[in-house]
Amino acid sequence: MANNQSVTVKKLPAKVGVPAKGSAKAAGHEQYANEGTNLPVRGESIIWTGIGIGSSYNRYARIAPRSSLAVKHRMMTNAGVIISDYRGQVKVVLANLGDQPYRVEYEDRIAQRIIEMIDNRELQEVILWDDTKRAGQGFVSSNATMDQEVKGQSAKPRIEINDRLARVFTQFYHSGETMGILR
User: Fold this and answer.
1) For the chain, where are the alpha helices, taking DSSP H only?
2) Total-model pTM
3) pLDDT tens-digit readout, 101-138
4) Going from the N-terminus, what domains does the chain have, and what CATH number goes with each?
């Protein structure tokens, strides 16, 4: 990578190794626990990794769940964005959504770190935006009816939350190279 796109990893005083990918085409680097801890049912814990990270201004690291922990033990990650100017130790907020307590042991693989690009364009306020087929139909609106038909269920009427969302949340506008906020 060029210098302006570099990601550096600093091994802090710890026994765990520098994160590595699980396979050549893996999206993320394994994050290991630098300590053991108990996660109660429906609880969470901040787990130290012993690794620091730094990246260029146009990159950030996303802490993502490991699919095996999510499927087998219902472990998820919270607070998963590490901004490019952070230089401290990476910590993983691991949440136990399961019905059983879970024990994290030293050197367990607890999450994965995925390096992603950032779109650094400034947002612009706009009055109108382009109309689309989907428009403001809400969450999962592009295939909600189709999924219900596939599962053999009759289509349920959509809950109309669009007006409420428009009032409560600022809406974003994106057209070509222009990104903005719709008011």
Assistant:
1) 67-73, 144-150, 162-168
2) 0.62
3) 999 999 899 999 999 998 888 888 877 777 777 766 66
4) 3-117 (2.70.40.10), 124-182 (no CATH)
Q: Determine the pLDDT at residue 10.
A: 55
CA 56, distance to chain mean position in Å, is: 19
Tokens 């390096």, residue? Answer: 115
User: Which residue(s) pair with 59 in the sheet?
Assistant: 117
**In which residue ranges of the chain is pLDDT below 50?**
1-4, 11, 13, 144-174, 183
Tokens describing residue 87: 């230089």
Q: How far apart, in whole angstroms, are the C-alpha atoms of residue 183 and residue 180?
A: 10
